[in-house]
Design a protein that fits this description.
Low-confidence stretches: 46-64, 192-209, 212-241
Order of helices and strands: EHHHHEEEEEEHHEEEEEEEEE
Number of helices: 6
Radius of gyration: 21 Å
Distance between the termini: 10 Å
Largest sheet: 12 strands, mixed
Strand content: 25-35%
Oligomer: single chain
């Protein structure tokens, strides 16, 4: 899958360029962290002199340019990804998806400030898989992948369709809602609890199993987002591993970027993100989330840095959230039976050689 033509792409090429720039900035962060750690080690071992940053880079970084974002604060990562957020905010969603906006209020919201809407495209993605329930199947349009660096793609939600609660271990994800709206649940993983008394309380609340924030390793279904296929194909792998995964102690992410909170008549609070807003998650902020599309569906452009990779302990785990005294405990579960996500083609997003 790739983008066959970039003519009038709505700014997608700029997103690619920003993703390249941001990845390089994240790599520099890692280089500095590695340099700092090398100096600390050298300071404790007087037999070995400290190495320069260039020596560290030549011996480690260049040979294996992989990043570990979990060692950086959300604040430093937020600064690094700002150019990417800005380029995604500037996207022309209608041009990107070849849609004609209207002002009659019919369709999915495109830009509420302009009162513009567009017809949703969930029923125009090909191929159509008649053995799947189309109304419950999220489709994925692959745009670009740079190995070990990032992936770019669009999730197309039919009305009411959802992506269950899942994680993004040691990753940054920037999401732009192209049209429509979604209800969001977002959780931040809490650092491991070391106080013995608190640990015992948590054990009692979670039926004898302590919640911790160790990286989970469960599914190969999304080791490449573009290969994110239906549960029916991979359920045997999921079932084999799900029971052995770690629980996570989390707290609700109360201020995710681009998300608005509203209350219904019963006083229940809902978190909503709608077009044209951008949101972001980081290794220690909002890293576990779920989405439910609104009445007209939604389209969401995701940039994932770095991509899912099981061999790098960046595999995807699905969870069930249970409230406890310390926030919520997320228990790993098998991929829900009512969730399917299938790759597809639409307009410029079709099968061709990667450029």
């Amino acid at each position: 899958m790739c983008v066959s033509t970039m003519a009038n792409d709505g700014g997608l090429r700029k997103v690619f360029q920003s993703a390249d720039l941001v990845y390089n900035q994240l790599l520099i962060l890692d280089q500095h962290k590695l340099h700092d750690n090398s100096n600390l080690i050298a300071a404790g071992d007087k037999r070995k002199p400290s190495r320069s940053l260039s020596e560290v880079s030549s011996s480690s970084i260049i040979k294996s340019p992989k990043i570990n974002l979990s060692q950086h604060s959300s604040a430093s990562l937020r600064r690094a990804v700002t150019p990417l957020i800005q380029s995604m905010e500037q996207l022309d969603a209608a041009a990107l998806l070849s849609l004609n906006p209207n002002q009659d209020g019919n369709g999915a919201v495109l830009d509420p400030k302009r009162g513009s809407s567009v017809p949703p495209i969930h029923d125009r993605i090909v191929p159509y898989h008649r053995f799947h329930r189309a109304e419950n199947t999220v489709r994925y349009l692959h745009a670009r992948e740079v190995a070990d660096k990032y992936t770019v793609g669009i999730f197309i939600f039919p009305p009411g369709a959802s992506i269950p609660l899942h994680d993004h271990p040691s990753m940054v994800v920037i999401s732009r809602v192209l049209y429509g709206e979604l209800k969001v649940k977002s959780y931040s993983v809490v650092s491991p609890v070391h106080d013995d008394d608190v640990v015992e309380e948590m054990k009692e609340e979670t039926s004898g199993t302590k919640c911790d924030s160790s990286p989970s390793r469960i599914r190969s279904s999304i080791n490449r987002i573009k290969d994110f296929v239906s549960r029916a194909v991979l359920s045997s792998h999921h079932d084999h591993h799900a029971a052995t995964q770690h629980k996570l102690q989390v707290q609700v992410n109360k201020s995710p970027l681009g998300v608005q909170f509203s209350s219904d008549g019963d006083g229940e609070s809902s978190a909503i993100i709608s077009a044209p807003n951008v949101t972001a998650l980081y290794p220690d902020e909002g890293n576990c989330h779920s989405f439910v599309a609104g009445p007209y569906g939604a389209a969401v452009l995701d940039v994932v840095l770095p991509p899912y990779a099981e061999d790098e302990h960046r595999d995807c785990t699905f969870y069930e959230a249970v409230e406890n005294e310390h926030g919520y405990c997320l228990t790993p579960i098998d991929q829900p039976s009512d969730f399917d996500c299938l790759s597809g083609e639409y307009g410029r997003f079709n099968s061709c050689d990667q450029y």
